[in-house]
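Milestone M4 deliverable, item 7.
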Amino acid sequence: MSYVQTGNQYLTVFGNKIAYRELGQGQSPLPLVMLTHLAATMDQWDPRLLDLLAEQQHVIVFDLPGVGASQGKVAGTIPKMAAQAIAIVKTLGYDRINLLGLSMGGMIAQEMVRQESAMVNRLVLAGTGHRGGLEIDRVTGKTFRYMAKALLNRVDPKRYIFYNHDDQGRLEAEKVLGRMAQRAAAFADETMSVQGFLTQLRAIKRWGKAAEDDLSHIKQPTLIVNGDKDMQVPTQNSLIMHDKIANSQLIIYPKAGHGSIFQYAEDFAKTLQVFLEMTT
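Output delivered:
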């Protein structure tokens, strides 16, 4: 079954109904848990990428509390979001996973490793930055600026947040957004609330203003991925994280921005599979 036809399932965590989706059950020894970006529900994952990954991976995605169809409140800090994610993974029955975080999800993933390192086998950080990193505290201003530009041009804000602002970026955005739009209403998630979105923005700003992390807590094999022109979370952060994390690999995709793993879905899926299969 394609991701666009994969509906929500639910479990209860600390009294709250939490929405999640699974794809490719039984395809890998460990599940690949994927954490999404600011203001996103599970519907904002590129279905092409998830279908490719699910060919060889057991993929799990979910809405954190207060997001989409999940009950509860959006946590006010990135570490608290990480604690929520850990609780969800444990309630799903897993004590060992591979973990991918995109943008804000990558920030949460770093904090999950800090809080429960033994849970994470291999780590993937896509389009993200470290605590106290370059311009992390400016994400709020950039987000509103790109949202305003999108409103003026009557397009999805992801057109400017995730893709280059030239004609090639427009074409790449149209491809990915078109794939996301294939999801029928019967399989759709709930929308993100404005209050939840603002809480996430404040959490990112607080995390960005905190003392710069040396990332010494990350011992896992780590794959760092970005485009060569990420305007939301500057690409330089990926280079810095690569320098800080001893056991890391770095991939920078050309003519791409914040949404590089969607723009290069086929290439990234192959690269990720190789990375997850490595034994050292």
